Amino acid sequence: MELKDKLISSFLAFEEACDVDSDIHNLRCEAIKEFETMGFPSKKQEAWKYTSLNSVLKYDYSVFPKKEDAIEYRDIKKYLIHDIDTYNLIFIDGIFSSHLSQTTHDKIDVCLMSSAMAKPKYKGIIDQYFNKIVSKENGFNSLNTAFAREGAFIHIPKNIAANKPVQIINFATGNESALMIQPRNLIVVEENAQIQIIERHQSLTDHPVLTNSVTEIFAAKRATVDYYKIQNDRPSASLIDNTFIDQKDDSNCSMHTFSFGGKLTRNNLNFYQRGEHIDSTLKGITIIEDKQHVDHNTLVHHIFPNCESHQDYKGIFAEKSTGVFNGKIVVEKEAQKINAFQSNNNILLDDSATINSKPQLEIFADDVKCSHGCTIGQLDEDSLFYLRSRGIPLKEAKALLMYAFANNVLESVKIPEIKKRITHQIALKLGVSLGFDL
């Protein structure tokens, strides 16, 4: 049985096991019909032209894990940003792990989607926000909605700044020969509120894992959302990450994506600016090797005037790895006085590495500042010669140049411990000791 047919046939059993109200039930039924019509994306679609899913969809994934594996803190500590105090939402094979997590309802809500869907006190928020900005152009989104049950539910009320960051981490243990996980996150940050979030998907096994994640983020007037995605999974794990961000007047949202590992990673990142004086930041560093594949597909939709957006993606590709950047900026006719910047710069370390870059601008306004640029090249030989003439070995000289190449993305990271962790990870990927911390 093909994976699509298996998922459709599994839906009825999934629905019978869920205790949700009729609105959610109807939403799920509509979503599975959409998935049945659309199926999985293929290279025939322009947005997936450079990313084939054949190697990912060939496995017979288990949709429901048979049992919860017992994992101790010592088994996962290295994957956490453990040197700062955080709220932790830990999921094991798609199931919430209460003994590894720390939730709260003290002034803010950091808890589970399953609880929010089931409890009447959250019905107003679910009805207002759940599945309201998710695109239906992608079969993965409809599939996730159909099976939406578990994930993070974060609600920051008006005028409240979360007192510490939130970590959302999904682990796969390998109990199943192949496992498909579908986390669903809803994050609502009300007027003049603030939150920092760190997200990671991590396999603890060499068994095939496919994660189909959907996250909706709503930032009200003057809200601040600072979000970090750390992607450094095993070569057997693949991730389809769909994130949608809705911003209102004077809000500031930033998304940093660090892609260092995994078999196939597809990041669909969508910003919708629904107000004036909005600032959106999208930055990323990709360093991959072997036959790894990372695809960044971004959209910033400027709907109102007097807003800004900044995109800066750096890629370093070795061996037979493949990178894709498809960045799109849309400026509506009413969105005057827009300042939109987009940059994608890449280094190919080997002749067999590949990067497909496609910056796009669709501008219908006439009083805007919009720029986009793309570079693809190798390390500068003159710079290498200069460093080597100062006594720096070739390997370390290359590493310093590559670190400097990616460093401006790190400059906007607001959590020092994440900056330090990413700096260390870059050094590991480059195979050197940089000899300094930031």
Explain how this protein is built:
- It is a single chain.
- This protein is of the alpha/beta class and 438 residues long.
- It has one domain (3-430).
- 23% of the residues lie in helices and 38% in strands.
- A ten-stranded mixed beta sheet has the order 2-1-5-8-10-12-14-16-18-20, with helices on one face. Strands 3, 4, 6, 7, 9, 11, 13, 15, 17 and 19 form a ten-stranded mixed beta sheet that branches.
- Helix 8 (381-389) packs across helix 9 and helix 9 (394-410) packs antiparallel against helix 10.
- The longest helix is centred in the N-terminal third of the chain and has 17 residues, at 22-38.
- The termini are far apart.
- The mean pLDDT is 92.
Number of helices: 10
Instruction: Count up the domains.
Output: 1
> What structural class do you assign from the helix and strand content?
alpha/beta
| Global outline | globular
Please report which band the strand proportion falls in: under 5%, 5-15%, 15-25%, 25-35%, 35-45% or over 45%. Answer: 35-45%
Q: Uncertain regions: pLDDT < 50 for 5+ in a row?
A: none
Work out the number of β strands: 20
Taking Cα atoms only, what radius of gyration do you get, to the nearest Å? 21 Å
Helix content: 10-25%
The rounded distance between the terminal residues' Cα atoms is 51 Å
Largest sheet composition: 10 strands, mixed
Task: Give, in order, the helices and strands.
Answer: HHHHEEEHHHEEEEEEEEEEEEEEEEEHHH
Mean pLDDT across the residues is 92
* Strand adjacency order, main sheet: 2-1-5-8-10-12-14-16-18-20
